């Protein structure tokens, strides 16, 4: 199934109206518009269309946009929503919608989030072309470990 951006906005608006999902923040419009979806796209809340021509939006995009609206209805800011939704599968996104639809789904929890702001990143240069990056606090790598990684990259 493929949607245009207009159709996607309409589908999300209809779903929200049917389930009484209204953003908690009074500054956020109740309807999902094309402009809203474009804004979500710039913030990384909505993946890029899978094809050009204005009709490359899929069920995954629908689940992403509707999940954003559900989390907004819980009063979460978009920056927090982005960290909670980043990299979620269709099944996980459907679980968020299920919390509203009565299907026993679950809202993502902070400890399950793969990316929570603010972050501290550690970096190790491995070669002139590669940099190893970790968000694990206190992680140390020995010279032998870095050499082993460098050898793997060269292979």
TrEMBL record:
Family matches, as InterPro entries: DNA-bd_dom_put_sf, MerR-type_HTH_dom
Task: Please report the stretch or stretches of sequence annotated as the HTH merR-type domain.
Answer: 26-88
Q: Which domain of life is it from?
A: Bacteria
**Alphabetical list of Pfam families matching this protein:** MerR_1 (PF13411)
Entries under Gene3D superfamilies matching the protein: 1.10.1660.10
Q: What is this protein called?
A: HTH merR-type domain-containing protein
Q: Which organism is it from?
A: Prosthecobacter algae
């Amino acid at each position: 199934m493929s949607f245009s951006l207009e159709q996607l906005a309409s589908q999300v608006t209809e779903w929200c109206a049917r389930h009484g999902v209204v953003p908690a923040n009074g500054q956020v419009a109740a309807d999902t518009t094309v402009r809203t979806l474009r804004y979500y796209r710039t913030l990384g809340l909505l993946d890029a269309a899978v094809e050009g021509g204005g009709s490359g939006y899929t069920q995954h995009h629908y689940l992403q946009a509707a999940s954003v609206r559900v989390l907004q209805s819980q009063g979460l800011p978009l920056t927090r929503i982005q960290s909670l939704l980043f990299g979620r599968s269709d099944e996980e996104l459907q679980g968020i919608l299920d919390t509203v639809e009565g299907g026993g789904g679950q809202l993502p929890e902070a400890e399950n989030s793969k990316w929570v702001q603010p972050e501290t990143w550690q970096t190790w240069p491995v070669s002139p072309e590669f940099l190893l990056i970790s968000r694990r606090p206190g992680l140390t790598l020995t010279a032998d470990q870095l050499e082993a990684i460098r050898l793997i990259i060269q292979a």
